[in-house]
Amino acid sequence: MIEPKGLDTKGFIRTISCRPIQPVFQAVVDKLCEMLRDCLGSLIDSVYLYGSVARGDAMAGRSDLDVTLILIREPTLQDNQAIESVRISLEGRHSEVTKVDFDVGCLADVHSPENLCKWGFWLKHHCRCVYGNDLANQFALFQPSRLIARAVNGDFPDVLATYAQRIEAEKNVLLIESLKRAASRKLIRSTNVLRPVEALSWPESLEDHVDHFLMTYPEMRPQITSFLCQQQMVDSDQGDFVERLRIFSAWMQLQI
Questions:
Q1: Residue 7 per-residue DSSP state
Q2: 150 and 193 in contact (C-beta within 8 Å)?
Q3: Residue ending a domain, choose from 118, 143, 168
Q4: Which of the chain's ends, N or C, has fewer CB atoms near its CB within 10 Å?
């Protein structure tokens, strides 16, 4: 019998490790918290990192700074403009990260029972609190399910469509490559929405997601492998990438 992957000894999905933030990224994380406090103040409930910086395996000059920001209420236009100014400032001052991404939510959404498999799972298993009230402590550990996969990545049609538009419009070659890597990661992780109901494992790395996906869809190996290879490739052909991205996204939507 194949041992399920990505789980702890009790069958729950593993959480991210609590290793210290890599020293090269400490300054940008500190500045992130400082700038958010200055511009949003008491509107902030909590700030989290997710992705490679949160896990402690980021690469300076190649990794993004991925941030989940929970506010005590829905942000206004002025609040969103303030968050955008923080993003632009951090990207301009800190070359150790290629870009900064914010996922913004509010307490009401986090506490809503209908969002348990989305916000509850996300905060408990993917996020690392760096400021404020750690809401992850309010949730129990989760076990693998397709419901969770679809709650977290069911937005892939809109997200990938937005990436395609941004890549087509972008002129900066370095930013194009960064966007292509980010789009590839989103696509690969989103394949988990097609997981069999009876599947016990939970993919963690991109390679895990690809292996997991190919167990059900082996005929898609060339397509999914091309997106995995995008993490190491430098290829400024925007048109070819965008076309492949849209075709794969459309195919996934037909499988659901």
A1: B
A2: yes
A3: 143
A4: N
Distance of CA 155 to the CA centre of its chain: 12
Separation of alpha carbons 15 and 138, rounded Å: 14
Strands 44-50 vs 128-132: parallel, antiparallel or unpaired: antiparallel
Separation of alpha carbons 206 and 121, rounded Å? 19
Q: What is the CA radius of gyration of the chain?
A: 18
Query: Which stretches in the chain have pLDDT values below 70?
Result: 1-3, 234-236
Buried b (16+ CB within 10 A) or exposed e, 220-255: beeebeebbebeeeeeeebeebbebbeebbeebeee
CA 7 to chain centre: 19
Q: Are residues 172 and 137 in the same domain?
A: no
Tell me: do 139 and 173 sit in the same domain. no
Of the candidates 117, 143, 169, which is a domain's last residue?
A: 143
**First and final CA of the chain: distance in angstroms?**
28
Taking the model in full, what pTM does it have?
Answer: 0.89
Over the stretch 106-128, which tens digit does the pLDDT of each residue have?
999 999 999 999 999 999 999 99
Planar angle of CA 188, 194, 199, nearest 5 degrees:
105
Pair (192, 98) in one structural domain: no
Q: Clarify whether residues 165 and 104 are in a common domain.
A: no
Give the domain extent around 97: 23-143
Residues 6+ away with beta carbon under 8 Å from 145:
117
